[in-house]
Predict the 3D structure of the following.
Amino acid sequence: MTDEKRVRLPLDEATEYCAEVLIKHNTNPENAWSVAEALVAAEADGLSGHGLSRLPTYAGQAASGKVDGLALPKQEDRAPAVIAIDAGNGFAYPAIDLALRALPTRARIFGLASATIFRSHHCGAAGLTVERLADAGFVAMMFANTPQAIAPAGGKRAVFGTNPIAFAAPLMSRRPLVIDMSLSRVARGNIMKAQQDGKQIPKGWALDAEGVGTTDPEAALAGTMVAMGGAKGTALAMMVEVMAAGMTSAHFAFEASSFFAKEGLPPGTGQFIIAFDPAVFAGENYGMRMATLVAEIECQEGVRLPGMRRYENRERAADTGVILPESVVSEFGPPRAE
């Protein structure tokens, strides 16, 4: 698709476009808007693997019933500072929204609060979730497991997911610190996007089914991802499996169906979110201590805090909008003319 033919939309119009597509594919409006807002936010931050490229598989899974687009998440109190949310084999985002409405009050009362989410689905850019808690004044962590993609150290068969970990911390008079990383060298969504775009992937991202490095996204999706940091990365991936599945009663990665295939059983993955009130832990010292840390990092030339590039991308997208991928326009058509 040439630059002249690419469809660029303001963020609000892109959100409306995504929501309308999902509503047409057996998703209720409330869920559709929750999903659409998450996809557009990821796209605006430059995280295209978690952005608009996901719309065809999301819509296809809602249409087939692999994801229940009509499911309403249900909350259960497990302890005063612990809630469990059943996503009902629906999209993860409405369940995450429910968790983020419940956690702040409890974290202020008890100093920390947690939410487990099970029978869930792809949670997108986990950094966006913890950032919302940091915007409200909380230090936050999130663990999420994904369908099998990484083999244990020394193995060839995938057992762990790419399993993102996200962390956010409020800072004085500026946007929060946000750290968001999958435990593969790159997010699996980047390989899916390369497949959709008909492009090769760089060396070192993935192995084929025989454990040999590949630049073919098709072979990569049939094989395994290369873990970040080798054996240390696979150990962290196992830790996330415990937090996101063992602690939530969700499916482990090797039990979960694909996030990409439009047919089949629901993935049933899980997420674990924790919010800490820094005022309870560090009192008035928290803000200045964090400012000291940030200053020591940023005084070095060429150094930036994690997540700052996402904020730059977001500001740019607020002015210029986002581009609908060719695969999305081809499948669902261009936006309606006003």
User: Anything to note?
Assistant: The chain has a mean pLDDT of 95. The longest helix spans residues 92-110. The chain has two domains: 1-70+307-338, 72-184+231-280. The first strand starts at residue 7 and ends at 9.
